[in-house]
Design the sequence.
């Protein structure tokens, strides 16, 4: 079997995650650990951000792997099924209505965001069910429909908001690891990623069998219904928590799984943990790199797309040259 | 080993009745070919027999009511079409056939590996076993999926058009392998020569009902082909072999 290559790539992903997490907090202006200010910047700002990046990147990349596998759609992202739009709508509404000041921006936004995510998860699930089953094509259509609906609602709220609120909303929608919560956000997001991994990792062989189609998977003994349902809830809840704390950070969930697949890692038993590690490392590293840019720091949501886009194109072109 | 059985099985897709109160019993070791025009219910019958589709009325045995894994150890099923988005190597595609046998995520046994290897060899894909399935031709992909069904080592094998897209050499090899198969076989096909060659019973479907059922020599005749397929075909008997020939 080609498991040796897969195992080596998994080890490589682990090394990358460790290196990225270790390097990321040191990127940017040098830190003087002798001063109170330096220690504050490192331990209260940069380190929690790197840890949040690890957890959020891992969750997003795992959600990407799993949704691509069960929907059998290489273009599926963690946001395809509408969870992020629901979460974002909750936060946007909270900002526009000034709930921020009632609940406090640090925990209030994530709480409202989680509420929006849970609302969309249950709406999508109800809309997609046909005669007690959860077919993946109705799941996809229901998710896409709700994404559009909630995106429209976000635009409507944003359009009518005061300029100051509109700017705050825009900032949040780019996606950022600056939660202002120090270690609370990384702890909660990290716990969500670990629980998600525990729920999804045992399904690796079922995902492999589903790659050839649902009937083929049923034929070899996969309980497709159960696999889809568990994947949907685990991936959506993970994404809901990430978006609630960090906003809809783009591209990690699409790019990381594909980059690994282009390196010929397709076996989902290895791909899922490797994507979690590589996704976490990638997001932490991107966040550190934003510190290097001149001028006011850009949020990491810009960096993932700015770095991810060209990297992904290069991988694709290399693969194309090899295959055609 | 149980017989495969449908009892008054009816399957509807909306207002359309795809299978209309069908009774069918396939004894252990029996080789049955399902023939009939497009849309006559062959695929629906196989899906129902495999337990993948629950009939609206009637029942399927032994698949009905068994957990999926249990069913897959008794019945292997090759769907009519497969669709690949991700570049799984052939050997990993075939390894999925052992899904119901392997207990954990990684604990493939010596028997699992042996089943994978012999199945890959049986369809002549050993030289391509590390190639991504997305880079194979249609016929090669078909053979990989057939190997996956063979790797299940189930006493009953349900195949939906296993010989489509196969070249002459591999059609011959696959049919020989199927003919030699010890277990039960139900084969949906448009390849009437193949049906006659590797099955000892032919079941003819039309409009969701069984319209003829018997030995190939008794079933494949010019009158039936005219009634069921609406073509004037000649049936040639060459020793024990039967060939269906149409004039173009």
Sequence:
């Amino acid at each position: 079997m080609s498991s040796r290559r897969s195992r080596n790539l998994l080890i490589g992903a682990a090394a990358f995650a460790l290196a990225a997490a270790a390097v990321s907090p040191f990127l940017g202006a040098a830190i003087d650990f002798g001063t109170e200010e330096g220690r504050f910047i490192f331990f209260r700002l940069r380190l929690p951000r790197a840890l949040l990046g690890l957890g959020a990147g891992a969750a997003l990349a795992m959600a990407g792997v799993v949704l691509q596998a069960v929907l059998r759609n290489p273009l599926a992202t963690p946001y395809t099924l509408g969870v992020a739009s629901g979460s974002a709508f909750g936060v946007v509404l909270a900002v526009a209505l000034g709930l921020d000041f009632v609940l406090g921006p640090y925990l209030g936004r994530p709480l409202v965001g989680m509420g929006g995510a849970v609302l969309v998860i249950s709406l999508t699930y109800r809309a997609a069910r046909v005669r007690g089953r959860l077919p993946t094509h109705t799941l996809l259509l229901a998710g896409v429909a709700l994404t559009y609906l909630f995106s429209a609602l976000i635009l409507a709220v944003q359009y009518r908001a005061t300029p100051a609120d509109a700017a705050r909303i825009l900032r949040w929608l780019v996606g950022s690891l600056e939660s202002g919560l120090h270690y609370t956000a990384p702890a909660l997001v990290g716990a969500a990623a670990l629980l998600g991994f525990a729920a999804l990792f045992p399904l690796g062989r079922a995902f492999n069998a589903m790659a050839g189609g649902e009937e083929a998977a049923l034929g070899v003994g996969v309980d497709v219904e159960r696999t889809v349902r568990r994947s949907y809830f685990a991936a959506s809840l993970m994404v809901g928590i990430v978006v609630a704390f960090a906003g809809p950070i783009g591209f990690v969930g699409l790019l990381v799984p594909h980059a690994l697949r282009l390196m010929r890692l397709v076996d989902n038993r290895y791909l899922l943990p490797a994507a979690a590690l590589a996704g976490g490392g990638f997001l932490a590293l991107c966040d550190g790199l934003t510190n290097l840019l001149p001028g006011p720091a850009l949020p990491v949501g810009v960096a993932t797309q700015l770095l991810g886009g060209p990297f992904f194109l290069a991988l694709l072109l290399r693969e194309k040259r090899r295959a055609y | 080993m149980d017989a495969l059985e449908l009892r008054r099985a009816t399957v509807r897709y909306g207002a359309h009745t795809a299978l209309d109160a069908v009774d069918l019993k396939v004894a252990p070791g029996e080789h049955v070919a399902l023939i009939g025009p497009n849309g006559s219910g062959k695929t629906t019958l196989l899906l129902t027999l495999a337990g993948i589709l629950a009939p609206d009325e009637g029942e399927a045995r032994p698949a009905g009511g068994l957990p999926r894994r249990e069913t897959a150890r008794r019945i292997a099923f090759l769907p009519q079409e497969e669709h690949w988005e991700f570049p799984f190597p052939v050997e990993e595609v075939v390894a999925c056939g052992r899904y119901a046998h392997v207990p954990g995520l990684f604990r493939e046994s010596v028997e699992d590996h042996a089943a994978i290897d012999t199945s890959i060899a049986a369809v002549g894909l050993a030289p391509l076993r590390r190639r991504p399935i997305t880079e194979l031709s249609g016929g090669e992909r078909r053979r990989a999926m057939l190997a996956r069904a063979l790797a299940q080592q189930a006493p009953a094998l349900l195949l939906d058009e296993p010989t489509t897209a196969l070249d002459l050499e591999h059609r011959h090899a696959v049919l020989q392998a199927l003919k030699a198969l010890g277990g039960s076989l139900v084969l949906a096909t448009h390849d009437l020569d193949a049906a006659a060659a590797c099955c000892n019973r032919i079941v003819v479907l039309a409009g969701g009902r069984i319209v003829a059922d018997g030995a190939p020599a008794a079933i494949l005749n010019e009158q039936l082909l005219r009634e069921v397929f609406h073509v004037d075909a000649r049936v040639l008997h060459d020793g024990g072999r039967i060939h269906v020939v149409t004039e173009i």
